[in-house]
Design goal:
single chain; 189 residues; mainly beta; Pnp Oxidase, Chain A; 3 helices; binds flavin mononucleotide
């Protein structure tokens, strides 16, 4: 038996990413977001959905740029903290001991401690209700060489212990159960 629930967005698990924004050191801020995702491969595009009352909202709207920083087990505490404290009251980089590094294309800083920084430039802002959706082009990606295999050039995000967010809880990823297309791969005889 299944129960009918009132409409809601129960699409989980999701990332819990730290979004860095701001154009100058005084303006730099970090906001944790789960309402974000991929919307196009080519051109590479993604979205973030932010409530207008967030301190970061005006910063992102003003600069039309942000960086999505993938979070890891090591960054889990800072991820949660940056999602419950406001840049209005705290310097989140300083208080979490995070390093604001230079991005390659955008003015917004990258979080050096994150293994993957996705630099984004906003194309369009859609007002949807509780949240505004920032539709953005990915203009550069910075990947930590620590997770790049020197021989194959393959980037292994799994080695950085990325975390997921599901229904109010944070999780590490579990065991690998298959690769893309494994269900149709011919078994070696
Ligand atoms: C796991 C997690 C996910 C969140 N996702 C969102 C989100 O998608 N959109 C949003 O507007 N706020 C989201 N928040 C809340 C903001 O991160 C929070 O209000 C934060 O304090 C805002 O920071 P700011 O005032 O410095 O901008 C989330 C918080 C957490 C902990």
């Amino acid at each position: 038996m299944k129960q009918d629930w009132k409409p809601g967005t129960l699409i989980y698990p999701l990332p819990a990413a730290m979004i860095s924004c701001g154009c100058t050191a005084e303006e730099y801020n970090i906001i944790t977001l789960s309402w974000l995702g991929t919307i196009c491969t080519n051109p590479p595009m993604c979205y973030i959905s932010v409530r207008p009352e967030r301190y970061s909202y005006e910063i992102i709207k003003r600069n039309m740029e942000f960086v999505i920083n993938i979070t890891t087990q090591e960054l889990a505490y800072a991820t949660d903290w940056c999602g419950v404290k406001s840049g209005k009251d705290f310097n989140k980089f300083a208080d979490m001991g995070l390093t604001a590094g230079k991005a390659s294309i955008v003015q917004a800083p990258v979080i050096e401690e994150s293994p993957l920084n996705i630099e984004c430039r906003v194309r369009e802002i859609l007002s949807l209700g509780s949240h505004d959706m920032f539709i953005a082009d990915v203009v550069n990606v910075k990947a930590d060489e620590k997770y790049i295999n020197a021989e194959t050039g393959k980037f292994s995000l799994e080695d950085a212990n990325p975390i997921a967010y599901s229904h109010g809880q944070y999780y590490e990823l579990g065991n690998k159960i298959g690769g893309f297309g494994w269900s149709v791969k011919k078994k070696k005889s």
